Amino acid sequence: MNxxxxxxxxxxNQIQAVVERLVKEANAKVVFIVDKxxxxxxxxGDTENLDTTSLASLTAGNIAATGGMARLLRENEFATQYHExxxxxxxxxxxxxxxxxxxxxxxxxxxxxxxxxxxRASDELNAIFEALLTKVxxxxxxxxxTEITDADIxxxxxx
Length: 159
Fold this sequence. Notes:
The chain is an alpha+beta fold. The chain is built from 4 helices and 5 strands, in the order αββαβββαα. It has one domain: Beta-Lactamase. A 5-stranded antiparallel beta sheet has the order 2-1-5-4-3, with helices on both faces. Strand 1 (30-35) and strand 2 form a beta hairpin. Helix 1 packs antiparallel against helix 3 (111-137). The N and C termini lie far apart (38 Å). The model has no long low-confidence stretch (mean pLDDT 87).
């Protein structure tokens, strides 16, 4: 994955729609997507009382540590993780080796339902990220940075 992911509004809205639908269909408390650097991309559900920034960072660290364990065992990657708690459970899914899909749920849902819904959401997200990658790599895309001149930069700092 690129160190810095480019995101367009159209794809962000598609990703957000998948995340919001997954909250409902999996009967989850929270669903969020994080890049492998720990940056939160999208979130839905009951996020008000949750430190999503820290959770995103810790999730990326967890994926990195698990990736290290996988390499030691000569595995490519452990794409799915599940953590069971007394009140909350976390299902973590690596999507296309690009982003991390996290579903937090409680007794109102089940691991089976979450896994079923995550499988479909992962396919949809993978398609969105594939299209995004193609769009970013397209030579005919209108790159805003190529339109900025040295004079524009000078004017910006001479105010």
